[in-house]
């Protein structure tokens, strides 16, 4: 089971104007109610609505275990405009992830994915239509630590920047698994043995994927808006454990 999200504190607002608001979504918080997550009782949509005292509309989605920038519109009309920007690829998204192994300096991952039905996979997903999916990978840091794994006396990990130009469900998770560098803490696309290792050794039970930045043109002002999210505490803690506190990158 995922770590329980602490919602005793208000959601962290990264950006707000009369049309849009962005939060730093915690790990394990669902964007909205879902039939496949019946264990959840709190959702970003309801929490932000109550915090602001008005209706909010999620302009895009983040996986439950992914933290970082989550953008909402404050009206149905603005929501339609922003959703169209996302669909047209006009919103630039940047993620950071900690993955197994040493990744290449840069890599273009051009690997089509079957359309996911959103219900956890199964036959419908396996038989779904293939959709183009493209992600650019850039390695920021690599580390080797004295953590035995299998036949190896040490373990290697990389901190990567991931820039998707398409928005398929679980795209980054599936792409990293495809190139054999799964995101730590990912289920079901990641490495269960690594996930178990992190849970036992570091008491970590989340997924190390962070939506770091969104950049888009504001539909009203035509200003280029860039929204950045600081790391959630668990992501930052593991960065320090693996790469050392002094080498942890900051998000200004």
TrEMBL record:
Domain spans labelled Pseudouridine synthase RsuA/RluA-like: 20-178
Keyword set, alphabetical order: Isomerase, tRNA processing
Native organism taxonomy: Bacteria, Pseudomonadati, Bacteroidota, Cytophagia, Cytophagales
Superkingdom, taxonomy of origin: Bacteria
Gene3D superfamilies in the cross-refs: Pseudouridine synthase
Enzyme Commission number: 5.4.99.26
Biological-process GO terms, alphabetical: enzyme-directed rRNA pseudouridine synthesis; tRNA processing
GO terms, molecular function: RNA binding; tRNA pseudouridine(65) synthase activity
Pfam families: PseudoU_synth_2 (PF00849)
Stored PANTHER family: MITOCHONDRIAL RNA PSEUDOURIDINE SYNTHASE, TRNA PSEUDOURIDINE SYNTHASE C
Function as written in the Swiss-Prot or TrEMBL entry: Responsible for synthesis of pseudouridine from uracil-65 in transfer RNAs.
Catalyzed reactions: uridine(65) in tRNA = pseudouridine(65) in tRNA
Name of this protein: tRNA pseudouridine synthase C
